[in-house]
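Comment thread on ticket #2218

A.B. wrote:
> Attaching the input chain for the structure job we discussed in standup.
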Amino acid sequence: MDQRAAFDQVVKPEILNRIALRHRFLSRMTLGFVAGALTVLTFPPFSLLLLVPVAYSAFFVGLCDLSLGV
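C.D. wrote:
> Ran it. Output below, let me know if you need it in another format.
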């Protein structure tokens, strides 16, 4: 038996799904935080207007495939 088959027998699929969902949640939260921080830098006194497309693009990438869970 190879190592992958042994791993699949030890770790249940439900646990792997929870880990994947947690990773996705943390990555979206991080991306949202970064997009918010970049948006703040677009206002005075910084006025880095070149960051506007970058900030909002990051925000919309984070919202992609997001559902309300209803």
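A.B. wrote:
> Thanks. Noting for the ticket: The chain has one domain: 3-63.
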